Amino acid sequence: MKIQKPGKAVLFIAALAVIAASFALTQKTRSNAKPQQSADSPPAFVRVQTVTADRTVRDSIVQNMSIEAVNRVRMTPRVSGRLERLHVKQGDRVKKGQLVATLEHEQQNALIGATEASLASARADTERARAEMMNAKTNLDRYRRLVEEGFSTQQQFDTIDTAYSSARAAHAAAAAKERQALAELERVRQARMDYIMLAPMDGTVLSDYALAPGAMISPSSPIADVADLRKLKATLRVPELKIFAIKPGMPVILLFDALPTEEFEGAVTRIDPYVDPATRTSAVEIELDNASTGNRLRPGMFGQAYIVEREFINAVLLPQSALLGEEGSRYVFIAEDGTAKERKVTPGLYQGNDVQITEGLAIGEEVIIFGGTNLKDGEKVTTQGK
């Protein structure tokens, strides 16, 4: 059988197809290849930060908190009565023993007057009984000498001795009544003090409950809140996994929403010896000296407490955006003479958006903190300071 050879037109078309396929493959390979920075490419624009060792970084247990006075008293009367006068108002500073409020107590005053009269009468009876006893004692001594000298009989002496014993007993009874009257006077005076309320300590009146004279007050009705603002405290709820890392005396850094740029120092003072099974937390109490702040802090202020486990002073901190690579193989880029140079570093503690660098950097070097994600070692850069 005779086989026909393909014509010239068929061979030409086949050749064109092979050339087109080869060109398409070449273009695809070029498009997948990573572009290289040519000598004419402009340098990458980056932002840098100069390395300094002037920061403090802490490893802390952080909890929300609000503060209150260590010593605070809500004053309520022991008895019911009408308010006669409130002698202080909210914001006033008071001294221990200062008059805060009085309830109407006319009946108590009258009772004290009657008891004072009874005491005066009892004292007069005592003095009279004492005079009679002393007179009987004088007679007894005189008859004792007469008996010894033979000028009186024993029977007469015994009669005088009996009279003296009776006078002495009468004096003792009168003295007992006087003491009883004195005790009664102290009792009624103390009872009147239930209507006169005094400040239990030096402090500040946090609330006067807007009470007006004539208001009916009972033992369940508070009259004033008095607090010593020189010492403040906060109670934190710490998870049980962290509780054994906390010890009494550990420093605590306090930040308040109302004063966001300032730090205040306190210390751990008490740790509950048990874990709440409902929340799996323990209560930790911290205190701070408000007097050292000029009493600027106020009960009820909200913020965050940082119980410091570890603290590094003069640490190197960089934004986390500067740290590249995977865990165990971290690096940053250094900008040096317009060139990006890769530098291996060892990260430490993380604090907010910053990270501590413990090894790999020198003071004064410029670290690329923005624009370094796609950089290569040796690539040209244009820098701008932070």
Topology, pairings included?
Layout: H1 8-32, E1 44-50, E2 55-66, E3 68-75, E4 81-86, E5 93-94, E6 99-103, H2 106-149, H3 154-193, E7 196-198, E8 203-207, E9 216-217, E10 224-239, H4 240-243, E11 251-256, E12 259-271, E13 281-289, E14 302-315, E15 317-319, E16 324-326, E17 329-336, E18 339-344, E19 346-351, E20 354-359, E21 366-370, E22 381-385
Parallel strand pairs: 1-22
Antiparallel strand pairs: 1-21, 2-14, 3-10, 4-6, 4-9, 5-8, 6-7, 8-10, 10-13, 11-12, 11-14, 12-13, 15-20, 16-17, 17-18, 19-20
Helix pairs in contact: 2-3
Fraction in helix: 25-40%
How many DSSP-defined strands? 22
Strand percentage: 35-45%
Q: Rg to the nearest angstrom? A: 47 Å
H/E element string? HEEEEEEHHEEEEHEEEEEEEEEEEE
Question: Can you describe this structure in just a few lines?
Answer:
Helix 2 (106-149) packs antiparallel against helix 3.
Which terms would index this structure?
disordered N terminus; 4-stranded antiparallel beta sheet; 39% strand; conserved putative lor/sdh protein from methanococcus maripaludis s2 fold; alpha+beta; Helix Hairpins; 386 residues; 4 helices; 9-stranded antiparallel beta sheet; Elongation Factor Tu (Ef-tu), domain 3
Verbal overview:
The protein has helices at 8-32, 106-149, 154-193, 240-243; strands spanning 44-50, 55-66, 68-75, 81-86, 93-94, 99-103, 196-198, 203-207, 216-217, 224-239, 251-256, 259-271, 281-289, 302-315, 317-319, 324-326, 329-336, 339-344, 346-351, 354-359, 366-370, 381-385. With 386 residues, it is of the alpha+beta class. Among the domains are: 44-58 and 315-385, conserved putative lor/sdh protein from methanococcus maripaludis s2 fold; 62-70 and 228-311, Efflux pump adaptor protein, beta barrel domain (Elongation Factor Tu (Ef-tu), domain 3, Beta Barrel); 105-192, Orthogonal Bundle (Helix Hairpins), CATH 1.10.287.470. Strand 11 (251-256) and strand 12 form a beta hairpin. It is elongated, with a radius of gyration of 47 Å.
